[in-house]
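dumping this here so i dont lose it
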């Protein structure tokens, strides 16, 4: 998004098609599963996580998490959205203004709890009920 002088103001998505899929996924994916764990993280929380992992941004931490748990990255992920999925589990994380919002959802309660708690610890974020 740019202002009237064509200066960069904010980023929504790489393109309109990705934006549509991101919006649909964030609204409806959690409804497909029995369990959904919402997560949020403030700028200070993310700063601590980035320093602890010695990374330049939070999406690199999420990429490592995804590889560890064999999540595939959705084609409509981009610079501020990371969407991962595998059989029976998916997650959506949006990074905007150095803060995080998202969820991890699935049908396997125990696995969601274990993976969700690991994700919370890795990103130094809170669980919202």
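and the seq i came up w/
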């Amino acid at each position: 998004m740019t202002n009237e002088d064509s200066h960069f103001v904010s980023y929504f998505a790489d393109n309109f098609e990705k934006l549509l899929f991101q919006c649909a996924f964030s609204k409806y994916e959690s409804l497909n599963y029995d369990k959904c764990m919402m997560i949020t993280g403030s700028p200070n929380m993310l700063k601590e996580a980035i320093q602890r992992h010695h990374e330049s941004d939070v999406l690199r931490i999420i990429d490592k998490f995804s590889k560890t748990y064999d999540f595939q990255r959705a084609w409509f992920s981009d610079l501020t959205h990371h969407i991962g999925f595998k059989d029976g589990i998916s997650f959506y994380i949006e990074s905007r203004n150095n803060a995080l919002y998202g969820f991890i959802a699935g049908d396997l309660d125990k696995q969601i709890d274990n993976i969700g708690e690991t994700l919370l610890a890795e990103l130094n974020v809170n669980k919202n009920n």
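The helical segments are 16-28, 43-53, 58-68, 109-123.
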